[in-house]
From TrEMBL:
GO biological process: negative regulation of cell growth
Official protein name in the record: OSGI2 inhibitor
Molecular function terms from GO: growth factor activity
Xref: SUPFAM superfamilies: FAD/NAD(P)-binding domain (SSF51905)
Length: 541
């Protein structure tokens, strides 16, 4: 059932108000709640920032918005002499308060976003060259830099890491998965966890992220079991400046604090959704925000082949479903092989999982095994032996070799799936046009995943690099300003992490840095505006 009573909704929103009012120990004197029926012109609950997604992207952004600031450590010397000279020029300033474009100029790395490369080299200097240098930063909590915000997530802090298949190692080292201010190795040691490898299990990372939110004092900013149904802009005009002028009387809210200060918040966005209660019921809410940050990741919607028969129940699209089928014994004793479609790391994980459970595999993928864009080409053999084992099989155990026809693993490079048949058969077509029919026990389509931005206008298709196309991490990420991470096509809307092409945790932290700096500058301008309206502080030195 769905709650519709004002009292129940008020209880949920009262928790938002409590969180907002407790910030820095200052209580908001006037913060009305909202009912589903109120009009946008009424006095409503308005937040400076709403973050959608509580994975590592959302957590890191909350950390910076909570007032944590990175400074160059007194004893630190960055191995890049040019960057170190730049850092020394403003040693007294936090990195958030410095010119990120100037600092990131000339840096190179495995992200196309310059601030991501900058922050990564400050946290993991020369990591791509195999060095294990300590960060050149130390962190200070400066509460006067706190920007009120709330982080909304479907599950506990950590996002999709809580639902990833637990049998495989992460692709990145544990150190690269850590967030600022809390060493993963030290955390693991304190929990007496036996980390045998530099690469760790996803459940270890999920537990670390959940603990991070607690130990850093960020819990008051987080709300779990929250599902967003709509994010819409309230006021639109020829441009943002015109909109602001025309709607100043209704789109700005003055919040009076106990110490007499005022905060000016423009209601640019309406965020609607519901929180799932412990009994499974839905408690609706509606918030208004000046800024919205998208940190949802890309694990929402598995990629699909869009072919006939893909909706049959024996065609799976996730490792978790495959793992469940194995654990329930559904594939035990099956004579026909598992059909795995895809040439990425998740598909490789599925191959390893099947082989470890003595399940024969037919492996179908579109690319040539010599394709330089295959992910295996980017992974050092010594660090990732299990993936190179799969790649070796892909290359040497092809269907074209007679001895492989009855092998436990057979690859089908340069093949497309045309259809799935109800008798559990699959029709393939080779690059030359030759068709083949394979019999299988279960099919597993693992060709990537895409973000589900259904809650945005036109599902977010208008904010990508290619307009009117779905947002994807590789082919069509959200188009952003490279230094502020604000959407170039939608003011006051920010995005970070996989949504802007940064799949690795070590790089998504740069998005949090860019957004935090942008919002800090805007907050400073607001305070200056308020002070000028109040007569410059009336003698305050």
């Amino acid at each position: 059932r769905t709650y519709s009573s004002t009292e129940t909704e008020g209880q949920l929103l009262n928790s938002f108000v409590q969180y907002f009012g407790d910030s820095l120990g200052r209580k908001i004197k006037r913060m009305p709640l909202i009912e589903e029926t109120v009009l946008p012109g009424d006095s409503l609950l308005t937040l400076p920032v709403v973050i959608i997604g509580n994975g590592p992207s959302g957590i890191c952004l909350s950390y910076l918005l909570s007032g944590y600031r990175p400074y160059l450590s007194p004893e630190a010397i960055h191995p890049n002499p040019v960057l170190h000279t730049k850092l020394e020029e403003a040693r007294h300033l936090s990195i958030v308060d410095q010119d990120l474009e100037y600092l990131s100029e000339g840096l190179e790395g495995r992200s196309s976003n310059p601030v991501a490369v900058l922050f990564d080299t400050l946290l993991h200097p020369d990591a791509d060259f195999g060095y294990d240098y300590p960060p050149v930063l130390h962190w200070k909590l400066e509460q006067h830099n706190y920007i009120p915000h709330i982080v909304l997530g479907k599950g506990p802090p950590g996002g999709a890491w809580h639902s990833m298949e637990g049998s495989m190692l992460t692709i990145s080292f544990g150190d690269w998965m850590e967030l600022p201010g809390l060493s993963f190795k030290e955390w693991a040691a304190s929990k007496r966890r036996n980390i045998k490898s530099d690469r760790v299990m996803p459940e270890e990372i999920a537990c670390y992220y959940k603990h991070y939110v607690k130990v850093m004092g960020l819990q008051k900013n987080f709300r779990d079991n929250v599902y967003i149904t709509s994010v819409s802009r309230l006021y639109r005009g020829k441009d943002d400046e015109d909109r602001s002028q025309r709607n100043e009387d209704i789109s700005t809210q003055h919040l009076e604090m106990e110490d007499g200060q005022k905060s000016v918040i423009k209601r640019n966005w309406e965020v609607r959704g519901y929180q799932r209660a412990t009994d499974g019921s839905h408690v609706p809410f509606c918030l208004f925000a000046e800024n919205v940050a998208l940190a949802t990741g890309t694990f929402d919607s598995p990629g699909r082949l869009q072919v006939e028969g893909e909706d049959f129940p024996f065609v799976l699209h996730s490792m978790s479903d495959f793992g469940a089928a194995i654990s329930k014994g559904k594939l035990r004793g099956k004579a026909d092989p598992v059909l795995i479609v895809g040439a990425g790391l998740t598909a490789a994980d599925a191959v390893l999982c099947a082989c470890n459970n003595n399940i024969p595999v037919k492996h179908v993928f579109r690319r040539r095994v010599t394709d330089t864009s295959l992910i295996f080409k980017q992974l050092p053999k010594k660090l990732y032996p299990e993936y190179h084992k799969v790649y070796h099989m892909m290359c040497t155990q092809s269907h074209t070799v007679d001895s492989n026809q009855h092998s436990a693993y057979t690859s089908f490079p340069e093949h497309n799936v045309l259809s799935f048949k109800p008798e559990m058969k699959c029709v393939l077509q080779s690059a030359s046009g030759l068709k083949k029919i394979l019999k299988f026990s279960v099919a597993l389509v693992l060709i990537g995943s895409h973000p589900n931005l259904f809650f945005l206008k036109d599902q977010g298709h208008s904010i990508g690099h290619h307009s009117n196309q779905p947002i994807t991490c590789k082919g069509n990420p959200i188009e952003i300003d490279p230094y502020t991470y604000e959407c170039t096509k939608e003011a006051n809307l920010f995005a970070l992490g996989p949504l802007v092409g940064d799949n690795f945790v070590r790089f998504l932290k740069g998005g949090a840095l860019g957004i935090a700096r942008c919002l800090a500058i805007r907050q400073k301008k607001k305070h200056e505006m308020i002070e000028s309206e109040d007569g410059g502080g009336d003698g305050v030195p």
